[in-house]
Amino acid sequence: MSVRPEQRQANPVSSEHSSTSLYEMHRTALVDYANNILRDRARAEDVVQEAWERIQSVERTRIINEPLRYFYRIVQNLALDNRRIRKREAQRSGGTLTDISDKIADDTPKPDAIAAAREEFRIVIESMGELPERTRMALLLHSVEGLKLREIAERLELSVTYTHQLVAKGKMHCLRRLSRKRS
């Protein structure tokens, strides 16, 4: 049984890589926590991965006072959302998707944002070229093709846990290269 976030001590961490170190130190406990909600270990792995990505995004704009508690909260929210979505999908019977193209706002990026994104994309492509083949493949399948960790593990004939580690290592490598560019 996992410890709830309220029962853990979380120290304020202001370093750029606080979510990465928390992720590495508490990944198993976070996955166990998500699994208690979802009752599906593979989905729990995906939820923890998504939570880590979201925390990294938040860390770019502000310091998180209690990062571990925040990490658990995001995992909990994502797991509950995932469970609700699965429940809704299970209740549907042959429903069709509605056309949402009218509802999508025009959020065309500005030229300077496009230039910055191209530069970041170039760095990510270079950094992916530096990764071992299996890590690069796992990262591409997850980030580009959108496959779940369970599907990648089956395709690469690996465990879900090891696949999760490969994807995380690949993302960390790319993020480190990007952070060097920003410095």
Global shape:
globular
The H-and-E topology, N to C, reads as HHHHHHH
**Share of residues in strands:** under 5%
Estimated helix fraction: 55-70%
Chain-averaged pLDDT? 81
In CATH terms, what is the architecture of the largest domain? Answer: Orthogonal Bundle
Main sheet specs: none
Separation of the first and last Cα atoms: 41 Å
Pfam families: Sigma70_r2 (PF04542), Sigma70_r4_2 (PF08281)
Keywords: Sigma factor, Transcription, Transcription regulation
Protein name: RNA polymerase sigma factor
Family: Belongs to the sigma-70 factor family. ECF subfamily.
Summarize the structure.
With 183 residues, the protein is mainly alpha-helical.
Output the keywords.
RNA_pol_sigma70_r4_t2; DNA binding; mainly alpha; Rna Polymerase Sigma Factor, Chain: A; 7 helices; globular; sigma factor activity; Arc Repressor Mutant, subunit A; 183 residues; RNA polymerase sigma factor; transcription; 69% helix
Architecture overview:
Keywords: Sigma factor, Transcription, Transcription regulation. InterPro entries: RNA_pol_sigma-70-like, RNA_pol_sigma-70_dom, RNA_pol_sigma70_r2, RNA_pol_sigma70_r4_t2, RNA_pol_sigma_r2, RNA_pol_sigma_r3/r4-like, WH-like_DNA-bd_sf. Residues 1-21 are annotated as: Disordered. Belongs to the sigma-70 factor family. ECF subfamily. This protein has two domains: 5-91, Rna Polymerase Sigma Factor, Chain: A (Orthogonal Bundle), CATH 1.10.1740; 115-182, Arc Repressor Mutant, subunit A. Helix content is 69%, strand content 0%. It is built from seven helices and no strands. Helix 1 (18-38) runs antiparallel to helix 2, helix 2 packs across helix 3 (67-91) and helix 6 packs across helix 7. It is globular, with a radius of gyration of 18 Å. The N and C termini lie far apart (41 Å). The model is unreliable at 1-16 and 94-104 (pLDDT under 50).
